Amino acid sequence: MNATIDQLQDAVRRVRDTHQYVLENRRTEAVIKALADAAQSWLPASSPWRAQAVEQAPAVTGFSPAMVNEAIDRMFGAITADSLGALLDRELGDRRVLDEFRPHGRAQARAFGAPVIVHLLAGNVPPPGIHSIVNGLLVRSGNVVRMSQNDTVFPKLFVESVRAADPDLAMCVELLEWPRNDAALTQAALAKADAVIAHGDDSTIAALRRLATSQATFTGYGQKVSFAYVCREAMTPEQLPALAAAAAEDVSIYDQQGCLSPHVIYVEERGALGPRKFGAALAEAMAAFQARIPRGKLSMEEAAAINTTRSGYEFRSASDRRIAVWSSLQSNDWSVIYEDDPSFVPSCLNRVVFIKPTDGERRVLENIQRHATRISTVGIAPMSERMTEFAKQLAGLGIHRVCPIGQMQRPPLWWFHDGKPNLASLVRWTELG
């Protein structure tokens, strides 16, 4: 049910009051423990949260039950007491600054979480929304969360799992629904916010930034894509099966819906095996991944986009040896398209990936340059000393994360999403001395 302005204003008042209570009655280590306990309670096969998510989420998110199970393991397995503490220490210098004045530079300082954070979730993949709520609770803020219609299941169940671990902490979150095009409700929410965390496409982020007040800190996460690079030294018969399996995982997790999903994999020529061999091996690995974790249901528009893309390349491959297509036999579950053209081509998603041969990093840099502001992550195999220089050049284009292939969809909890800090914009500081 969509919220009304009165319900929204009541929610803001409640989380603001609860934030003050939790600020006075919970120390950081207790908050860390509650969040870690909540996350870990999802992991056993017998977990009631897991069971409810697997039952409810496929109908809302479109992901298969097996993918929901995989998402649970990845998301909540990464939220531990150690990773939460490391996130605080990395970004605030000392987690205890949220409890008391601590040495900070030449003075002492204490950090206070924003009284009210408004979170506007996108819902294409589950982790960003869960991480957003975790970050808000970690600094003991009050949190008003507008859920996406594409995922109401994970936020609701996660907050309930927090409630089981610490009822007072869970009262710092109010989950609401309203249409993202309801400007009046959105503006009413943003008018009360001390901080805003927004997820969505670029036009949505721009519109929300205009609606936010000048007093609120605004952090927006827009549209991103990713790609991978395979060096010639990795293209050996011994390494290829494991490498292809790792790449298939990066492509297939969350059905390629997230910003960390590779759309293109560049394969360097002059290895013991050529780029086409990588395409064939990736196709086998994609089929194996599909057998283990099936792709979710497609909308008519998504199915049409895949069919159009696949049939177009299959038609061209009949008369052009520079193109090859490997695909699932009985449906459009996955497609691997080899094209002897270095241009960066965004995929139509849902496990459709392009393989592009290249003569080196310089050629790749030339072809991704105009897309660089939209690129989130670059996966590389292997992460050699030679690739360190490539990473520097990618960073110079504004790309924020470079990691091994197979880890693209496993960022650590403390990673700088889109190059931005997770907690710094959510706290204010008071200095002493």
Structure description:
This protein has 433 residues and is an alpha/beta fold. The protein folds into 2 domains: 5-223, Aldehyde Dehydrogenase, Chain A, domain 1, CATH 3.40.605.10; 225-404, 3-Layer(aba) Sandwich (Aldehyde Dehydrogenase, Chain A, domain 2), CATH 3.40.309.10. Helix content is 44%, strand content 19%. The protein has 15 helices and 15 strands. A 7-stranded mixed beta sheet has the order 10-11-12-9-8-13-14, with helices on both faces. A 5-stranded parallel beta sheet has the order 5-4-3-6-7, sandwiched between helices. The protein has a 3-stranded antiparallel beta sheet with strand order 1-2-15, with no helix packed on it. A hairpin with a 2-residue loop joins strand 1 (102-104) and strand 2. Helix 1 (5-25) runs parallel beside helix 9, helix 2 crosses helix 7 and helix 11 (240-252) packs across helix 12 (275-292).
